[in-house]
Amino acid sequence: MAEQHFLDITHLAKRFDTEHGELTVFDDVSFGLDKGEFVCIIGHSGCGKSTILNVLAGLDSPSGGEVYMAGKEVRGPSLERGVVFQNYSLLPWRSALSNVEFGVRARFPGWSKSRVREHSLQYLHMVGLKDGAEHRKPSALSGGMRQRVSIARAFATQPQLLLLDEPFGALDALTRGTIQDELLKICAETHQTVFMITHDVDEAILLADRILLMTNGPHARVAESVKVSIERPRDRTTIVHDAGYYPIRTHLVDFLVSRSRELSDRDDAVRDAGHTREVQAEAMAPVEVDPAADARAEAAGFARPHAPDPHAPPPLKAVNGN
Ligand SMILES: Nc1ncnc2c1ncn2[C@@H]1O[C@H](COP(=O)(O)OP(=O)(O)OP(=O)(O)O)[C@@H](O)[C@H]1O
């Protein structure tokens, strides 16, 4: 297969045998990622985002199709692909620092103890864990701090590809915002290639170079690749004032409100008629959003009133050093 991108996913399919028969979660997912790109994927619950991420991680195998990274087929897990899940997955008997060191040692077995320590501390500091917090066990850290340790560990191992599965989904709004800022900073410094699942359109616009939009499952697919052409560095508190922000947001919300279902229904009709949908191998040109995008989403109550208000008071919960 000719490599077009750093990561190439072609005609990926996943079917599960369930008690109700075979479930085709997706049967033709194709897209690519370039080196250093930050790509978010959005779609309704159950369309198969985590399944795709697990296949990219090598934790699950596809029922069809191929994944190539740097020209090599992905089969099974590898330290070249780091994963951060929503539930932290830290070793509970080790301190924050020791959790990071554990990952770094596995990745760089030839490194001296002091080099491993220095490197691990550097990444813990990057995510704001210092002043003794790095020596605490996960049980003595807040949810936000634990997720920071997971992120530090993933970045510290310098994988070629970082896979983030809703890493901030369980965090309160203020903690989430702070860690998003830290993630932006680390990505600017490391040029890490990232594939991230999120349900939060504002988070996707803040972080991503490109946002992939999935139709509803079953038989889901990546239907659009939306370019986020807002300049970097981006600032969470001012990004909403960028002229490109609301058109992109409206485009994404409109997809989630109506196009994802319309496209799924159309795909179903094509399949029911016994035809094969014409494949768009993700030569899929990234969509540049029209500034005068349809306002249907706003009518559905999703648009501006729900955008992050940088002047809103922080949620009460968010104190514990996050
Ligand atoms: N091991 C399994 N056996 C049977 N069905 C499965 C299995 N794993 C996932 N599924 C089904 O595959 C579909 C896609 O699941 P997946 O978790 O990938 O969706 P998702 O888009 O990540 O959802 P969410 O946004 O809710 O996390 C769902 O219908 C789920 O029930």
Automatic annotation (TrEMBL):
- Gene3D superfamilies, A to Z: P-loop containing nucleotide triphosphate hydrolases
Chain positions covered by the region annotation Disordered? 266-322
Name of the protein in question: Nitrate/sulfonate/bicarbonate ABC transporter ATP-binding protein
One Pfam family cited in the UniProt record for this chain: ABC_tran
Is Cell membrane given among the entry's keywords? yes
Any one GO molecular-function label of the UniProt entry: ATP binding
Q: Identify the stretch annotated as signal peptide in this record.
A: none
Query: Could you tell me where the Low complexity compositional bias lies?
Result: 281-305
Q: What SMART domains does the record tag this protein with?
A: AAA
